[in-house]
From TrEMBL:
Domain spans labelled Enoyl reductase (ER): 10-322
Organism lineage: Bacteria, Pseudomonadati, Pseudomonadota, Alphaproteobacteria, Acetobacterales
SMART domains: PKS_ER
PANTHER family: OS02G0805600 PROTEIN, QUINONE OXIDOREDUCTASE PIG3-RELATED
The keyword Transferase is annotated on this UniProt entry: no
UniProt name for this protein: Zinc-binding dehydrogenase
Alphabetical UniProt keywords: NADP, Oxidoreductase
InterPro entries assigned to the protein according to its UniProt record, in alphabetical order: ADH-like_C, ADH-like_N, ER, GroES-like_sf, NAD(P)-bd_dom_sf
Domain of life: Bacteria
Keyword Transcription regulation attached: no
Organism: Roseicella aerolata
Pfam annotation, one family: ADH_N
GO function terms (MF aspect): NADPH binding; oxidoreductase activity, acting on NAD(P)H
Length: 324
């Protein structure tokens, strides 16, 4: 089969053996694969969880038909089903995923490209906003890095779960102008040092109850200022740096719960539970077409390196997808 792999000369599409599913896995004939920021690190030769190094097939999410199932896969998942999945090795004609990370694609209103944009965003942001952020109806929330695909999904989920105010950040004016289409009540420019004051003003001086942070170091102390007393900050990503200053006194004074999350150290059982909770809360909205992500551009699998370069240039809005 064809697959985009890491080589010493960069990402190349080559013929590699078709993967075989373990007893708990599903083999998927991939039709489309979504790009994610973590793919850039893997493509550069860095490790991401158990992925990384020469020969690694890139890709964390994909959609396609079930080609085969392992002996421990529940009977509800069968060959021929259209599924979307999170996993590894998605930039390929075939990929495997744990059965608990596979979800049927709604047949009525969703094509392969749209389906491939959803697994990581839905799982990551339901876990951050609802499970770890503990967002309650009537509370306010700030999504840092809101113009990313995951960020756009986070704002939509927050609205669906009854948030009173949804704030989203982007340092790009054109992208900020588009955030309202995805549930944002107030777009914040974190390149303005006074941005925490804007959040406090919008919330009557209280601050937001929940912050989902995909940026980290460059906004860490601003988050503490913008967060309500007894608020929750969920650290999802580190696009603004993994190390930086932190005002421990302000953290203590505001009695903020600071929560770190990643899928890289979670067990199969934990990820299955994340997917189960997401489906319980969100699947009706997904089937109704209420939770969707914009498509910036699609590329054929043969142009995987070009697709990654497009993402690295950071000029896109929405998801980049490979059609396999």
């Amino acid at each position: 089969m064809k697959a985009a792999i890491v080589t010493e000369s960069g990402v190349q599409v080559k013929d590699v053996p078709e993967p075989q599913p373990a007893p708990h896995e599903v083999l998927v004939r991939v039709r489309a694969a979504g790009l994610n920021r973590a793919d850039l690190g893997v493509a550069a030769g860095h490790a991401h969880g158990r992925m990384g190094g020469p020969g690694t097939i890139i890709g964390l999410e994909f959609a396609g038909e079930v080609a085969a199932v392992g002996s421990e896969v529940p009977e509800s998942i069968r060959p021929g089903m259209r599924v979307m999945a999170s996993g590894s090795g998605g930039y390929a004609e075939y990929a495997v995923a744990d059965w608990g990370r596979c979800t049927p694609v709604p047949d009525a209103n969703m094509g392969w490209v749209q389906a491939a944009t959803l697994p990581v965003a839905l799982q990551t942001m339901h876990d951050a906003v609802v499970t770890n952020g503990g967002l309650k109806a009537g509370e306010s929330i700030l999504i840092q890095g809101a113009s990313s695909g995951v960020g756009l999904m986070g704002m939509q989920i927050a609205k669906l779960m009854g948030a009173k105010q949804v704030l989203g950040s982007s340092t790009n004016a054109a992208r900020r102008a588009k955030l309202a289409e995805f549930g944002c009540d107030l777009a914040i420019d974190t390149s303005d040092p006074a941005w925490p004051d804007k959040v406090l003003e919008a919330t009557g001086g209280k601050g937001v109850e929940v912050i989902v942070d995909q940026v980290s170091a460059s906004v860490a102390n601003g988050n503490l200022r913008a967060c309500a007393i007894l608020g929750r900050i969920v650290n999802v990503g580190r696009l603004g740096g993994s190390k930086g200053e932190f005002d421990f006194d302000l953290h203590a004074m505001r009695r903020i719960s600071y929560i770190g999350v990643t899928f890289r150290t979670r067990s199969l059982e934990e990820v299955r539970e994340i997917n189960r909770r997401m489906r319980a809360d969100l699947w009706g909205a997904v089937e109704a077409g209420k939770l969707r992500l914009p498509i910036d551009r699609t590329f054929p699998l043969a142009e995987a390196a070009e697709a990654l370069a497009h993402m690295k240039a950071n000029a896109h809005f929405g998801k980049i997808v490979l059609e396999c």
